[in-house]
Structure formats: C-alpha cells, structure tokens
Design goal:
about 0% strand
Length: about 60
C-alpha cells in the first residue's frame, strides 16, 4: 500500500459496484430465516420430548 489516497479511491469505486438487495428481497430473506428458526425450534422441541419419554421408560424398566 504505497498511496493511501489511491487506496481510498479504489475502495470508493468498489463500493459503488455493490448491488444492494431490494426491500422485497430483504423481506423474503428475513421471513425465510424466521420460518426456518421456528421449524428448527419445533423439531428440537419434539425430539427433546421423544427422548425424555424414552428415557423415562428406560429408567422405570431398570428400577
């Protein structure tokens, strides 16, 4: 990095090349993330309940 001014100009040029998502794309992405988080939390809740049920049966049988 020999010339800091040239570096700043290059950064500015690259920043103008960035294409930002539209509002619709941002909303779709946000909704997908929220939906997947809800699905994952329900899945892990169900798995936890199944394992709890099976563990209770196993502990009752062993004693």
């Amino acid at each position: 990095m020999k010339n800091p001014l040239k570096f700043i100009q290059d950064v500015k040029q690259e920043a103008f090349k960035v294409t930002w998502p539209t509002g619709k794309e941002t909303l779709q992405g946000t909704l997908m993330v929220v939906a997947m988080a809800i699905i994952a939390s329900i899945f892990f809740l169900l798995m936890d309940q199944i394992f709890k049920f099976l563990l209770e049966i196993l502990l009752k049988v062993s004693f």
